[in-house]
Amino acid sequence: MDPRQSQVHLKPPAHAPARPSPSTSPTPTPRAPVTAHPSATIADTVILHGTHPIAIGAGTIVHPRAKIYSYEGPIVIGENCIISEKSSIGSAGVAGERSRTVDALPIRILACVTIGPLATVLPGAHVHSAVTVEALATVSRRVSIGAHSKVCAGCEVAENVRIRDWTVVWGSGAGFGQRRRTRATEKMSSATAVTQGIQALEGRVIEDARLMVLQKEREALVRLIGPGGGGRRR
Amino acid sequence: MPPKVAKGEYIETDTGNKISRRSQIHGTQHIILGGKTVIQGEAVIRGDLYRTSTSSSASGDQTGQQPATATPSVAITIGRYSYISKQAVLRPPSRLHRGVHSFYPLKIGDHVFVGERAVVEAASVGNHVHVGKDAVIGSMAILKDFAYVLDGAVVAPGMVVPSWCVVGGAPARIVGEVGEGYGVEGAEGGMARERYRLVGR
Amino acid sequence: MSRPFPYAYISCPCADTPVPDPARKRRSKETSHKTNPEDPNVPVPEDYDFEDERTFDPRSPRSNFSLYPPEQLLYCEDCHQIKCPRCITEEIVCWFCPNCLFETPSSMVRSEGNRCARNCFNCPICTAPLAVTTLENVTGGGSQQGPWVLSCGYCMWTTLDIGVKFDKPTNIRTQLSKMTDSSRGRQMSKTFSDLKSPLSTYSSIDDQFPSPNEIRGDEASPINEQLSGPLNPEARFQALKGFYKSQIASTSSSPNDPLADFGAGFSSPGALNRIMSLYTSSSRLGSLYGGTSKKPKSKPPVMREALTASEGLRVPAPDAENALIRRMASDDCGWDGMASLEQRTFQSPDARFVEDLLPLPVLLRTKRSKRCKSCKHILVKPEFKPQSTRFRIRLIALSYIPLPTLKPLVPSPFAGLPSTTPTTAPNLDSLSPLRTVQFLLTLKNHMFDPVRVTLATPSVTPGRVASKVTILCPQFDIGANSDVWDEALQGSAAPGDARASRSGTLGSTEKVAEAGKVWDKGRNWTTVVLEVVPGSLPGGGGVTRRGRMKQHDDGSNDDDDNDDSDADSDANANALDWSGQTKDPNQRLQPDEDVLEIPVFVRMEWDSENQIDQEQSVGKGQNSDTVKRELAYWMVLGVGRISSEMGF
Fold first, then answer.
1. What is the pTM of this model?
2. ipTM of the predicted structure?
3. Which range is the signal sequence, renumbered to this chain (chain B) (predicted)?
4. Which of A35, B166, C118, C309 has its CA 20 to 30 A from that of C368?
5. Does A227 map to a domain?
6. Domain range for residue B117?
7. d(Cα C561, Cα C569) in Å, to the nearest integer?
């Protein structure tokens, strides 16, 4: 056996009986029509269910055990995203029924978005580019999250809310405990900086650095999750 | 789902680990369990995110990685009598260091409790640590022995929680200390053996 | 932290004994054994009185202050008493930074303040720790060269948000203090003085400031004034303090006027004679009492206020407030641009906007040793090193009093964890009223002597929700704890297996709880059965509460019930119950009144080896080497929450 193959091990422990994979599942859950870019990496154990199409962009990485449900509308995931384990995009809802009656609620996730472990993105969400949705966070229905924003761990963005670009939603859960703040994008100044005569850098360089780290992380993940570089579903 | 699944939900290994058949463990060869550890159903353990040798990753995505695979690097170690609850996620932390992005091992000590739906991306979790349910331990955080993370707390990336400290909130702050008797066998923080014993009965 | 059911709290007897008088305690250590209210001879009869007089009411407001989880309690071997955090004193063993875990010498804490002097900072926005990161990654060089910033991994704040970057990744605090000091005031050269602890001010005031003589009087030197300019807040505070000190000194006629040494006089409460001299030697006060003032004054001296910037006066620019308001109202500020009260707490008083917030060096933490307040013996002494979790001395109550654990008695073994609770176990978060539930109360002895335990409960719990409680076997023995090795050799699973076999599926079907018999017994533990009949909640009156609610506002409430947000129906049901405003206040359920807590009086007797303190023994044992000891205390068992609905 190729040593490379043995590195990538996506199965449950050897003594455990093989878990029925979604593709061979006897349940009548419809497998969603998926169009994934060849350079996207989608792990074995990702669940892709639903009736509407799911599109996954170039360079995007979907970690094992992520769940993507397109029952209520099509799902578009842009390029260079990272979808973490056990995150859920779309709602598992009742198969087939709602999509007929209600207007389809598409989920649009643009480029370079990170969805953390156990995070939830509900139908109708529009997540702009370079957004981070951290672990256990919830993006409710019909929410729009502006570019370069961040929903911190455990926070919930309530329905129909529009978050502006460069906003950090942080604090405890939903409602009162939650705070927002705007990230710096330009040269910021303060009393301290002015008197020092510091030639300030643009706040944007921080974001550039972060995106570069993300790029590197994706490269590392491709090696680990997708066998042989741009691995596809096996 | 029924909390008590019919007989045989748990597989007991030679060293006494009780692992749910419904657990979602990836990269088993990169995971070391100390024995008598419990892993409940739907818990995700990402052993597949291990550290590739620096040389190979630095030199890009080339195919010659034989030296790295000869001795599989360890992604996650869990000590004795630790307990990983349902739907918890353990994933090794990662960071960019000198231009190389790599994963670092996640070390979990003895008698550790990880609550339901907790996400642990710490660099190290000491002995007798309690991680409440729905808590998030950020990347490269360090939880020292006897640290207590309250339910729903968000320990920020890189945070250090000193021994005996109770942290809570988002982002987590030190909100108190556990008593001196914390961790005594049978009392709060010392339930690990009892917990283990009752699993799968 | 509230605990999930079932739990056991132990009441510290100090709540019912007079609080030790600190003055009396301080006066003499040697007399403590005579005057001490917690003399070991006293508590036992007191406890008897206590038992006779009234039942411990877990719902009484005082109980909040005496109930502790068992692991929080200590035990004084000299007083033979449980000690709670209220009956101990603490001494700091060492100071350390919770982030880098380095120790800070106490001398440095005094001089530099109680914050980390290294590179540890908290985010001024969200308090998460800040990391020192390089910006070189942008170019991908990874050469570990600057510039450097502090960045928050949680809320993504960086020092670039306030336009600050650093040239090197070390000594960030010094770099930052240089920036802030020179920006705010040139006079103060001391590093980062606006973050100093109050501890530091007294010790270092003299070397930071010109002595009172220099700035005494009305004429401050004009040169000084020109130099100083606007001071930073801390410098201004120091200047004002120096000014008032000199004012007091110059207006006071008596050379040893206590107010003259402003700080020191008020900061050391120990100097009783100094406080006494307030009444005797102060010229002004002394004259009031017809005292012994040396030269009584006809006209009281006049103190003036600060007049110059060097004295600490600051006159804000006339339009400063308006400028602030305009900025607040402007579009690029908004609500998110304002610093919250919480954020401003540790910042300069002038910080109004988020751009004014500076990174905060991490507050230090301490390791503390603990002493008994009444006899001064050390109860807890941790190892000196910050990272060590060992103790040199650790007298915890759990080593002396039996550890109580409570479990519902169910046909199948109870897993002790909410996640694995068998379906057959009663739901402790909603116990059906008037339906008997049996619990297993296990007491585990950690002493090396066998113990005889007597438990007593009121037959009906105090309060409006009267639950009936019966302990089927109130008097029993617990075996002695033995060496760790004995347990290991016997097999670690032995006690659990024994218990499981008795209460397991097989055993429990045959085994029925019997009055007067212990349920189960192990090497150093005994289990008895507790029978509880949860009372019905007030306002029930035949119709269940939920039923009444539905009758009142059937439509809306039904909607609520059907709503899928009502998944955690228990919590919601309770929330509904006590907020039912339409009800008569007497009928209304008070918050947490539905929690079923059982007060249990525990009295334990054992023969212990005789020590020096013979006079403390209650009675001689059979053997002259052993003395009979006893200890009595209340504990509270939190059984569960009574549901408003009748069970079937």
1. 0.77
2. 0.86
3. none
4. C118
5. no
6. 10-50+73-198
7. 8
